[in-house]
Amino acid sequence: MGPNDLAALWVTLRLALTSTLLLLLLGTPVAWWLARSHSRARTLVETIIALPLVLPPTVLGFYLLIALSPNGIIGAGWMALGGNGLAFTFSGLVIGSVLYSMPFVVQPLQNAFAAIDRRTLEAAGTLRASPLDRFFSVVIPLARPGLITAATLGFAHTLGEFGVVLMIGGNIPGKTQVLSIAIYDHVESLQYAQAHLLSAGLLIFSFLILFLVYRTNGTSLLRRENR
Amino acid sequence: MSTGINFRFKLPLGTFTLDAAGEIPSRGVTALFGRSGCGKTSLLRCIAGLEQAGDAYLSIAGECWHDSDKGFYLPPHKRAIGYVFQEGMLFPHLRVGENLRFGHRRTPVGQRSEDFDRVVQLLGLGPLIDRSPAQLSGGEKQRVAIGRALLNHPRLLLMDEPMAALDRGHKKEILPYLERLHGESDIPIIYVTHDLDELARIADHLVLIEQGTILAAGPLYEMLGRVDLPIARDEEAGALFDTRIVHHDQTYHLSRLALDGCELTVGWIDRPVGAMVRIRIHAKDVSLALDPPGPTSILNVLPVTVLEMAAHGRGRMIVKLDLGGQPLLARITQKSQANLDLRPGMRVYAQIKSVALSL
């Protein structure tokens, strides 16, 4: 593996971890609201969040590129806050990844939250637990399998991302070049051996993560039923 | 300043509106009684603060919890209440011990009025402490839920049909605990039920609810002895008496109970002479005769005075009788009433076929 490949691996892992963290932080309140709200805006928000599921990544990437440019709405705001421009930077990649992977995080969380009986929360309320207290002492533990699924899907989806990254991050080795693009480059230049190495590595890694998560989640669900 | 629970709630409930105001005594068990869907659970939820009525007032022993006129509403987690849901609603991710301590841990030490071990002992929870809720039977879950509510150190215990989801066997298992709770705790309890037998066993006061409004309220004995209320029409209608065991008859396996000036002979009661027992005489088990009947298999024939009567349709009547100063109800047919020419003030003989115990 060349130094560029190692750098791509590092960028990819960093991107996936950062995005997953942000996805959970942002996705949890959104999913909670979607699971509990009867507001009319709910359908609108659900639709917007689900859009990346159907849009070609290039469409999202194209509009993000425009928005992140120094004159775009996000880019200009970022510059005004003292930032250095977002397009073709790691931060830009994170923004793109978060938007692109949002449905994969929000939907399992929303399902997990919706499955919690309202009365269980009311019971906690009558037992002196404030709304925030209830969220951390009852909601989060009960939604744990959903949280794990959300984190895994968010992580795995970011790991395999290609189109959005290419549109907004370009292909700067060591900065914005991720594994999926490095593989593409190798194939383009007919370096099949390197392409194999990275592809097989990504394949095995993804398989292992999913397998581990499903195993822990699966057994924890089973244990719950046996209790 | 009132020591009881004063309330006023107006809350739309689909086809009708809960529109209830009144006072609940600060001692004993007050039952909110009515048919399913009459609004009794909504009233309980309003008292807990789980439902926020637009027009509302609630104060507990002079302390205001809700006053919509002043824009004041204390959310449930700031009210010192214990709430028992129909299905227990234990936290599935916590063991029984952690469920019991959920409210306990969140109560400031100075406000803790219940002792953990005492509650565990009162409800027989010792062997369950390390189990998870999924390993409990329905009755056990409800006992834990009651314990969890008590260990929230409430000033007011609210119970929403805590036995409705249980089968007969588990109800039998829970009732003695509720009665012990009633006897040993001085926290006022508001108890929602639609079961007349349950009501007779544990309540002291009764609030009768129909279509979201309070039809009548008062001491249980008085209310169960009234002929003008829908409960008198119930198949299980009947009067309540607090009696004392005065004699056990070993030969015939019978016990004799004393109530104001007269005695009742009933099946053997496994309690010592001198013990107080609450009994219920169902109206359907009482028949009337103008003269003392001759030899009869009925053991209890008591002289009574007719107080009032009400027709209940389909040829049936309910008759309120005076038995040593307490009301006794009898259900007879309108034809019998005509035959006997029953009128208020008449002295007749009540033949009591059986007596239900509410131990």
Characterize the structure shown.
The complex is a heterodimer of chains A (about 230) and B (about 350). With about 230 residues, chain A is mainly alpha-helical. Chain A has a single domain, classed as MetI-like (MetI-like fold, Orthogonal Bundle). Helix content of chain A is about 80%, strand content about 0%. Chain A has 11 helices and no strands. Chain A has helices at about 5-35, 40-55, 55-70, 75-80, 90-115, 120-125, 130-140, 145-160, 165-170, 180-190, 190-225. The model of chain A is unreliable at about 220-225 (pLDDT under 50). In chain B, strands 7-8-9-3-10-11 form a 6-stranded mixed β-sheet, with helices on both faces. Chain B has a 5-stranded antiparallel β-sheet with strand order 2-1-4-5-6, with helices on one face. The longest helix of chain B is centred in the middle third of the chain and has 17 residues, at about 170-185. Chain B has helices at about 40-50, 95-105, 115-120, 140-150, 170-185, 195-200, 220-225, 335-340; strands spanning about 5-15, 15-25, 30-35, 55-60, 65, 70-75, 80-85, 155-160, 190-195, 205-210, 215-220, 240-250, 255-260, 260-265, 275-280, 285-290, 300-310, 315-325, 325-335, 345-350, 355-359. Chain B has 2 domains: about 5-225, Rossmann fold (3-Layer(aba) Sandwich), CATH 3.40.50; about 240-359, Beta Barrel (OB fold (Dihydrolipoamide Acetyltransferase, E2P)). Chain B is built from 8 helices and 21 strands. Chain B has about 350 residues and is of the alpha+beta class. Chain B is globular, with a radius of gyration of 23 Å. Chain B is about 20% helix and about 40% strand. In chain B, a hairpin with a 4-residue loop joins strand 5 and strand 6 (about 70-75). The mean pLDDT of chain B is about 90. In chain B, helix 4 packs parallel to helix 5. The chains are: A mainly alpha (about 230), B alpha+beta (about 350).
